[in-house]
Amino acid sequence: MDKNQAISVVFNICFGFLFAPIYGRFVYILLSRQHYRNHECYRIVALIGIVQLLCAPGVAFVALEKCLGYDPWSLCGVTMKLYAGVSKVEPPLSFVLALNRLKVMCGLRYSAGIHKTLIVLILLYGFVFFGFLFTPFADYTFPPNSPMGKYNFSLPLTQVLTQTGFVVNIISLIASFFCYLTVCVYLLWAQWKIGKIKNWKAERSILTYAVVRFLCDMFVIIAYNCIPIREEFWDEMFIAASYSTNMLLLPPVLYLAINEWVERMRIRLRCGFRSIRSEFLACGTAGIGRISGGEGT
């Protein structure tokens, strides 16, 4: 195994065996606590998390395949096809999250069944995309000496499948952009007109999460589909790292950064350290006073 292969293995082990379980723990919290399950936005975030975690087996089995030198029971091949399918489903699901933010923060009134119908259609589209990769008409493989998977464009429907996925993702990004643009304009208007935004503190964290996810999705999709990728290790490694970071590392980092409970714990720890420091300084000052008094006598 050469140096580049070793770097790729370490990278995949970190994402497949370290970051994915941490992310899974956050998704479990969203699903297990009634407070989160009662809000549609958190249910959508949890669903996106489950979908993104389906990337983890592919990343993990890539490391196994590179270490062994072969693909046992075609585990790497199957799970990487799943990875490809997930990459086409996540941006449309993020659009549904953007719709939820638009509905809640702008006070729109329409049936919640619209979001559920969209989610069902998106998941169905993902299953169809994934299934097509097992047919003789399209394929997604992982070359032994490459850090990223590649479509087999020699097959008749691969081009159609990838172009369809790209169009769906771009439409989802554009629609999400207009949703967040509308939300921003509405918030500015509400701040100017009313002077106070209803439930702003409660809604701010999930809006921040959604907007950052949108920006990262946009970067990854444009980088993979619109920028020519040279067949060199570090170019391909950058794209592979961007996808895996966007899927498995960024979400738990964002959750830690914006979660109110974590913020409260951070404040408590900060206050605790300040209290300990004050007591330590007070004891030190008292000790110095006693020593000085002893020397004086």
Automatic annotation (TrEMBL):
The chain crosses the membrane at residues 6-31, 43-64, 118-138, 166-190, 206-225, 237-258. This is G-protein coupled receptors family 1 profile domain-containing protein. It comes from the Eukaryota. Keywords: Membrane, Transmembrane, Transmembrane helix.
